[in-house]
């Protein structure tokens, strides 16, 4: 009985470690800025990825950690963003926490 419990505990720990390793990078997107729409507290950038996926990235000074991390993206720029991703029935959205790179 003790061996069964130990085996189950080790198996659960292994599963947890593997699942956490697989999640790495899931909250990052890279692509080209297709459009920019300004709002009250920031703006939404429409990003087209290499896989032809469209994300609506909400970027505000508060969410990126202050004015020193805030950048205004322009159409045609290649960007990498990190943040919280959620999906609706027809769209993919991201609340941007970090602007990794802009080219």
Automatic annotation (TrEMBL):
Keywords: Signal. It comes from the Bacteria. Residues 1-23 form the signal peptide. This is DUF3221 domain-containing protein. It comes from Flavobacterium aquariorum.
